[in-house]
Design brief:
Helices cover 47% and strands 16% of the residues. With 307 residues, it is of the alpha+beta class. The radius of gyration is 20 Å and the shape is globular.
Length: 307
């Protein structure tokens, strides 16, 4: 009998700061439910036109675009102090008169999905990183192209879907799905197990997901009781994701607090296993490559080629 998986469908947008803040929760779900969870993404289109956006709860709107950029920056920095994910300190200029929407990023993700689903998720992650931690204008075609290349997408196929309208059509389908589920804010997650579904609106912590997963599966799917914490396990997990923020490391490996996680990572850095890349009030943890260890020259045993 085929093993059922829990499917978490994340209604999202590449520029949603609390979707960025949900990443540590997802990392913890991955380590505590190994092989039991699949993540799917539905693009919800957070901002069609920033000049028409009004978010009174977060003090965003009713201003010219430069002022709105400042308002969003203040909101993101405040959110970062709570969710712990890296957000660049100053210089937020994501929106402009020429690029007032997040729809290009949503459409680009759909194009990427049509090329390679796994690389599309890596591309979505890079768009989140580039928006939040680098303050790149990720709606700009040149930036989208750069991030798609970094994610390893076939750029010829990627641009075909962007140019022939198929990616935009797929995005409109996602918008219809979003409306059908009554989703009006992001993140929203649909937790599914077989024919059981539970909709979680807004940001939810790990404990809430665990309760919902156990309820939906009638107790069949439970988290592992303990993790094996060592440098190798952590490094393998980081490499699998490309890079991880300190907040993700803390959650994924059950560190009691951010200081303890930081101490462990800094020991790994001292041992030459990872690099720390500071952003705002936090940092990313990147694995050290073979080329960096050897000063740019190494031999690949599998191919017999020296580079």
């Amino acid at each position: 009998m085929e093993h059922k998986k829990v499917v978490i469908t994340n209604f999202t947008d590449p520029l949603c700061t609390w979707c960025w803040g949900l990443e540590p929760v997802f990392r913890k779900l991955e380590t505590h439910f190994p092989g039991d969870i699949e993540f799917h993404y539905v693009m919800g289109g957070l901002v069609e036109n920033i000049e028409e956006k009004w978010d009174p709860a977060n003090g965003i709107g009713h201003a010219d675009i430069p002022r709105i950029n400042q308002q969003i920056e203040a909101h993101w920095k405040d959110a970062a102090r709570r969710h712990g994910m890296p957000v660049k300190g100053t210089g937020f200029t994501l929106f402009s008169r020429e690029y007032p929407s997040t729809y290009p990023q949503n459409i680009a993700y759909k194009a990427a999905q049509m090329v390679d689903a796994k690389k599309a998720d890596r591309f979505l992650r890079r768009m989140r990183e580039a928006s939040a931690a680098e303050y790149l204008m990720t709606s700009h075609p040149d930036v989208i192209n750069q991030l798609a290349a970094e994610a390893g997408l076939d750029l010829v196929k990627f641009h075909k879907h962007l140019e022939d309208g198929s990616a935009e059509k797929a995005f409109k389908d996602d918008l219809r799905i979003t409306r059908a589920f009554g989703v009006t804010g992001f993140p929203t997650c649909l937790v599914s197990y077989g024919d059981k579904q539970v909709l979680l609106r807004g940001y939810n912590d790990y404990e809430t997901f665990v309760k919902v997963i156990e309820m939906a599966s009638n107790g069949k799917v439970k988290p592992v009781e303990s993790l094996s914490l060592n440098d190798t396990a952590m490094l393998d997990f980081i490499k699998d994701h490309g890079r991880m923020a300190l907040a993700e490391v803390k959650e994924a490996f059950d560190f009691p607090d951010i200081k303890t996680a930081d101490a462990w990572v800094r020991k790994m850095e001292k041992d030459g296993k990872v690099k720390i890349n500071p952003v705002g009030e936090s940092y990313f943890v990147d694995p050290v490559t073979i080329a960096e260890i050897t000063g740019g020259h190494y031999c690949d045993i599998s191919t017999g080629q020296c580079i």
